[in-house]
Every structure is written in C-alpha cells, then in structure tokens.
Amino acid sequence: MNNDETWEGKQINQYDVQEYLTRGGMADIYRASDSQLKRVVCLKVMQADYLNDEAFVKRFQREARTAASLDHPDIIKIFDTGMTPSGQPFIVMEYIEDGSLDRLTAKGEISWPLPQQQALKLIKRVASALFTAHNRRIFHRDLKPQNILMRHKKHPVLTDFGVAAVEEMTKLTRTGEMPGTPYYMSPEQIRGERVDGRSDIYALGLILYEMLAGSHPYAHLDPWRILEHQVLIEPPPLRLARDGLSDATYQVVNTCLQKHAANRYQSVIDLIKAIDMALERESAGDAPPPPTSIPRPGRWQLYFRQNWLLLLLIGLVLILLTLSIINILPNGIFGETGLTQNAIKVAATAVSTNTPNPTSPATIQIVVQASPTLIPVTPTYTHTPLPTETPVLPTETAVPPTAPPIINPIQPPRTTPTLSCVARADSSWGNTVDQYESRLGCATSGIITYQMSEAAYQMFPGGQMIWRANTNQIHVLYNDATLSTFNVGPADASQATCQNNLQNSFGWLWCTNSVVQSLGIPSETERNANNMIVQQFENGLLLTYSEINNNLVLFTKQKRWETSPK
Fold first, then answer.
1. How far apart are CA 492 and CA 507, in angstroms?
2. Region(s) of the chain under CATH 3.30.200.20
C-alpha cells in the first residue's frame, strides 16, 4: 500500500490509527485506539476508488446497520460509524487480535485438517450466530474463512455483512454482478436466483469440508471452473479425502453440499441438531444407531410389490400345514364329533397316464370338503385311538420322467425387461430409442412439434443453447456433456447488448450468468429450430430438429446430455 493512501499514524475523529492490517473487498482495515473510551478498536475505511459508485457506498453503510442490529456473542460488535475528512465512510468495530481463520491457518497457528470434534463445534458456533441473523431475515451470502475471526484462536466471530441479503430490502448489487466469493457461493447464488438461509448452509458445508479434509474440494480449479463445478458437478466425497469419521459427520457435510437447496438442511436449527448427533457419534466411536422395529416404508412396499406371489404361496402353505397339524392331534382340537369327523380333507393326487403327454405337465388336484354345519361339542379327553387312515400318495409311475422344461414356441421368452407404462416412446423416434428406454422411464407426454417461432438455438464454442416457447426454458448444453436448464421470465427476453451476436433470452442469460459465459462468445446469432420435436419422460426428454440432422438428443435428470443418430 502506498504511503499517500494510508491512514496509518493519522487521526480520524477520536481514533488514533496505529497499524494497517489488511485490505478487504472494498475497504482497508486498521488497528486504532479510541482516545475517549481507552480501548483498542478495528477501523474499516472504505477505499477511495469506490466513492463514485453509489451502490458500493450504500452497501458499505448497510454493513454497519446490519451488523449493529444483531446481538450475539459470536457476531462482531459495531461501535461507531462516520466519515473521514476526505469523505470516505468508516466503521468502528470490535478488535479481534488473532485475526481470521484463514490468516491463522496460513501462518500455521491452526493446522488443517482439524480434529473432527473441534471442526464440528466451531461450525456449530457459526451456525448459532447465523440463527440470530436468519431470524431477522438477514442472510450473510459471503461466508468464508476470511470472514470468521478467531477470538483466542478458539472461538469464531462472524464478520463482514457487506453483501448480506436483507429480505424485502432493495437489491444493492448491480446487473451481472454476483455478490460473494466463488469458492463458497451456492449454486442458486451463482445463477442469480433469490437466496435464503440455505445458501449460507451450503457455504458452511464447504468450510466444514475444508476443515476436515485439509483443503477446499475445488481448490485446484480456477475461478471460472469453480463456478461451473459449484453449479453442476458434485465435489469429491469427503470419505475419499479423510476416512475414519462417523457416518453422521459425513452425512452433515453431504447434506449441506446438495446442489438443490430443497435437499439441504432447511434451517440452521436442523443443521445444529445434525451436528449434535455427529458429535455424539464421534464421542462414542461412531456406535451404530440402535435397531428399529419399524422398517423404511418405501423399501418394504417395493419388496411386497415385487414378491407378492411368493408371499401368497408361503401363506397358503402355512395354512395347509396348520390344518394338517390340527387334524392329526389326539381327538382333534374340537373332539371326535367336531371338525375331525367332517374335516377339511386335502388330497393331492397326481394325474397321469401310462404315456405322459409332454405338452400336459402333471396337475395337482386339491379337493376341499367341509361340513355344512358345525356343532360345537364339549371335548371328552379319552384315549381313543386315532382312526387308521391311509394317506393318498402319488406313486412312482405317476411322476413323469425328468425332462427339460418345454417352452411354448408361440410365446418365446423376452430377452430384455420391459416397462409397464401407460405411455411409451413414440414410434416416430425409430428403433434407436430402445437403448434409452430403461433410462428415460415412461413417457409423460406425447410428441410435441414446434413451429418456426416456437423454438430457437444458438451455437457457441463451448456448447449450445436451446429455447422452447411452451415451457419458456433455456437448455444449456456444454461440450463436456453437462446440462443446465434455466427458466426465462417475460422481462428477461429484452435485448442484451453486452456482446455481439447475443440477443433476446440467450443474450440475457449469457450476459447475467458467469457460468454460462464459459460457453465463449458466439460467432453467429440465434436461429429458429425448424420442426423441433420433443417428448417428455419420467427421467428426462428426447429432442431433435432438422439443423442437427435430426439426431436424437437425450436429456436426463442427472444434468447430462448425449446424442446419437436417429
């Protein structure tokens, strides 16, 4: 830092500026002394370069108001605000001598990876501080080790609410600007969608991963590739980077890092409960949870659906065995004049001829005879010998010689399983679609044909975009076979002027989304997709149009795409 830019050794109001510490995103940080209250404070002075940017000035002022409104021991305390003689806004806050978590690890004063219990407890305290903010509908949006100060190198203190999102407050970010740090941004934040507390939970998951693994899951990537991975590609499982942790700890990290916010913990309270469970498992040496007598409904329902015939046959055998046991007990269960005199008689008779018919296998006849009236009689316990009954047994001649099973040639066995669907892939796709059927599942729509103005596409160096009018969606197909889908609002289709050859919805998406910008700059404008044909399935969709030589394009729910000749 140049001497003519520093406030070091100068005085701002009652604050004697003693030492320059570091530079943040839009401010310089100093250690200062409050001459009136006789205490050491941290002075944050906005950089002069941002004075002409009204959005940055408002964001800086909002940081002071936001943090000052939150009362929690693990959130930085704001003491004062003001303006320097040169017109630069400043904030006076609590001074944490040991500095940030990032600084301490860089200096080796805190070694990563951390012991699992220490890491879990630290994240739990940060989550507790976030609970206070989230209750005020304040979402941090820039959680990272640099914004976690460490009091006495043990207790985290949350700071830097400069890009915090306050619900129902005017948006203070400029068009095309993504608030936050790429390494810790949630997928919805990168896409420019509305954020809530689940974005902070995603960032906490990345910090916890980093603490336990010793490095960030995307540390080897440049910032642009990181954005793409944050949105599309799952991080390497923590278990590969560090084994020996409890399943509950792995589950905490995995749930926090889900790409879809609906699959994460829905509140920091849910996260804190999961961390408490993980701490218990770590303390107990990852003792397995106690067995439960209540099976998972989904698994058993699937088992019954798939094996109902086998279970029915087992039930019938048990009933027959029970009746046989009842019938052979001394005097029967109901006495001589009870059911034993008119018992249910089951005779298995093998029906055969001297010359067995190879097309007619032996049949078993089950004869059931029951008494038309049942008269209850008090049993008499006498030792009456059982009547001698000669069981009817099949003779050896009644059993046809062992022979290989005969298959009716009119109904050959199917070599591939088929789906039981109300609707299937339309026959117009041809035989090629058969290879996709098991992955796509059943059809949920018929063939949809788009006319000239109802679908469009545009080619880029790194892939292509496809737009469909009826769903008002843009599909982005990257050359690495990954896929993104974006919803387009009516106002988003306005002309975009950030690059040549970009217009309408494609231009809006490219100009406002840094991940999509990895497609590169197109050399041609968008075109109508002539006679585009689409069919929707349970697990994806099929699409084709004449400009791609009517090749099939397969989209799957796994955010992947592929193509093959029709």
1. 9
2. 3-94
Which has the closest alpha carbon to 66: 132, 155, 144?
Answer: 132
Q: Is 74 a catalytic residue?
A: no
At 529 the pLDDT is 82
Cα–Cα–Cα angle for 103, 154, 31, nearest 5°? 50
Mean pLDDT score of the chain = 75
Instruction: Judge if the upstream peptide bond of residue 113 is cis by omega within 30 degrees of 0.
Output: yes
CATH T-level fold of 101-283: Transferase(Phosphotransferase); domain 1 (1.10.510)
SS3 labels along 410-463? CCCCCCCCCCCCCCCCCHHHCHHHHHHHHHHCCECCCCEEECHHHEEEEEECCE
* Domain spanning 3-94: CATH 3.30.200.20: yes
The amino acid at residue 407 is I
- pTM, two decimal places: 0.51
Q: For residue 66, what are the contacts with CB-CB under 8 A and spacing of at least 6?
A: 138, 161, 164, 166
pLDDT in tens, 40-86: 999 999 888 888 888 778 878 777 787 888 889 999 998 998 899 88
Q: Say if residues 55 and 172 touch (Cβ distance below 8 Å).
A: yes
Name the active-site residue from 28, 98, 142, 200.
Answer: 142
Structure confidence at residue 163 (pLDDT): 52
CATH 1.10.510.10 residue ranges of the chain are 101-283
